[in-house]
Amino acid sequence: MPRYALRIEYHGAPFAGWQRQTDVPSAQAAVEAALGRLEPKEHRIAAAGRTDAGVHATGQVAHCDLEKVWEPFRLMEAVNYHLKPDPVAVTGCAIVPDDWHARFSAQERRYLFRIISRRPTLVHDAGLAWHHKSPLDIEAMQAGANRLLGKHDFTTFRSTMCQANSPVKTLDEASVTGFAVLGGQEVQLRFRARSFLHNQVRSFVGTLAKVGTGAWSPEDVSAALEARDRAACGPVCPPEGLYLTGVGYPYDPFAEMDSGGLIQ
Length: 264
Description:
tRNA processing; TruA/RsuA/RluB/E/F_N; PsdUridine_synth_cat_dom_sf; alpha+beta; Alpha-Beta Plaits; isomerase; tRNA pseudouridine(38-40) synthase activity; 264 residues; 2 domains
């Protein structure tokens, strides 16, 4: 029974999150249903991470076990055909060893958060970025983000519903960049770590936005972190600006496909 790695992107708006749930749509259920059209049986796929309702992905990774041996490009095409009209697409497919696991073999996860700060309502980016009406100070936000780097007890930035065994995580990257857009600016925050706590990134962003408006100083971020108290956190920002952009493994299972090495 061959195992396949799938790189998946999806628009999170219509879904109650990645994870399959009873009586509500999910990105996982959409992919499993498409696989069921290829091999009629109940499919259960495992993914690198669970995203919440409204959160998007450009680089989610999952794996599935199938009876038939598929050429990876053909499997990708077949799954995408049956995914329509759901806003989900498989953008990479590869055969992997039987002991390869989308979640447990992963060495890092990467997230992007988009904020667009301008007075007018978002039109083309509605549902794809956090609309923030106040200008944001990029340098101050980066100074605040730097306080989060490294290994810490992130209890302050952890949802009370988080099921992780420990709040201690190591944040390897926290970068803040900005550029002008019509009528305002877009701010992009990127975070990279082996794993994240529930709501950790959205808690980071909401807190750093307070720094960007001048309501908090970068030193206040350190104080919140050191408090190890959820009540010390800034507001949790909305989900629509968050994207799971990639998952790192000891080797890239999609490298051959991305390089054009597979016959189409």
